[in-house]
């Protein structure tokens, strides 16, 4: 009678671990990129909701001035939370939503979605929405918008 060997040899185990390491090293960056992209899409949706809120505010008040919390022109919108209620609880927010500026005449505004430090979105660059419909994404996170960054999918 012959004896049957059970189990794996050390070489087989090392080859399996090496293959798994290669798969993880290729898959993890793609996964983190997907997570950041999903959070950015949620922030874009939320910016559009804030823009709709700004239009409702102007329809009621005939100006964009005073739309921020406390009646100010900048900061968190008074009519909308500064996080994404559509996706998850506030403690898990990925972007801060703010009214960045309102013109002196109260006829135009700029909204921003800034990535929260310590999240997968950190360093992803700020999203901008302008009252004239322009959209921008500081994709290289350098603090300024170049002509090629006036879109959300660049």
Question: Can you walk through the features of this model?
Answer:
This protein starts with 9 loop residues before the first helix and ends in a 17-residue tail after the last strand. It has one domain (10-149). The protein has one helix spanning 10-61; strands at residues 95-102, 109-115, 127-130, 135-137. The protein has 154 residues and is α+β, with helices and mostly antiparallel strands. A 4-stranded antiparallel sheet has the order 1-2-3-4, covered by helices on one side. Helices cover 34% and strands 14% of the residues.
End-to-end Cα distance, whole Å, is: 69 Å
- What's the structural domain tally? 1
Structural class given helices, strands, pairing?
A: alpha+beta
Please, how many helices?
1
What ranges have pLDDT less than 50 throughout 5 or more consecutive residues?
none
SSE series: HEEEE
Q: Helix content range of the residues, please?
A: 25-40%
Main pleated-sheet profile: 4 strands, antiparallel
């Amino acid at each position: 009678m012959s004896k049957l060997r059970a189990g794996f040899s050390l070489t087989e185990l090392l080859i399996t671990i090496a293959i798994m390491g290669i798969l993880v090293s290729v898959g993890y960056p793609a996964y983190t990129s997907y997570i950041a992209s999903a959070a950015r899409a949620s922030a874009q949706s939320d910016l559009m909701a804030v823009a709709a809120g700004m239009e409702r505010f102007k329809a009621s008040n005939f100006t964009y001035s005073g739309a921020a919390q406390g009646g100010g022109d900048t900061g968190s919108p008074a009519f909308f939370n500064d996080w994404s209620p559509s996706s998850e609880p506030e403690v898990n927010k990925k972007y801060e939503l703010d009214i960045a500026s309102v013109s002196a005449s109260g006829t135009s505004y700029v909204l921003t979605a800034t990535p929260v430090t310590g999240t997968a979105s950190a360093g992803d660059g700020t999203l901008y929405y302008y009252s004239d419909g322009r959209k921008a994404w500081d994709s290289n996170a350098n603090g300024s918008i170049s002509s090629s960054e006036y879109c959300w999918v660049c």
